[in-house]
Amino acid sequence: MEIHRLFALTQRPVMVTLGGQGTYYVDGTATGQVPAQNVPVVNTIGAGDTHCGGIIAGLMAGLALPQAIKQANQLSAQVVGQENGSLS
Asked: How far apart are CA 43 and CA 26, in angstroms?
């Protein structure tokens, strides 16, 4: 699988978003899939940026990678359920 090859090359966590199936990750000590929230998709604009920001914010707050991904999945689910790409 390509994600494992990317990890082998970088020795850094690698994540792949899978839309409605969640996010698959490899971090060197664990491999897993964090499920997505089941929400109706209205618009995907901003979902990827929100996901990245959610992971970064979670990691900066001290969350473990799976918990940061869970937070990111929840935030992007909020974004795709709206007509615009903002959480305001």
From this structure: 28
Separation CA 38–CA 66 (nearest Å) = 18
CB 3 within 8 A of CB 16: yes
pTM here is 0.89
* Identity of the residue numbered 7: F
15, with CB counted inside 10 A (0-12, 13-18, 19+), is buried
Render each residue's pLDDT in the chain as its tens digit; 88 residues: 699 999 999 999 999 999 999 999 999 899 999 999 999 999 999 999 999 999 999 999 999 999 999 999 999 999 998 887 666 6
CB count in 10 Å sphere of residue 11 = 8
Q: Which of 84, 85, 88, 87 is nearest to 71 (CA)?
A: 87
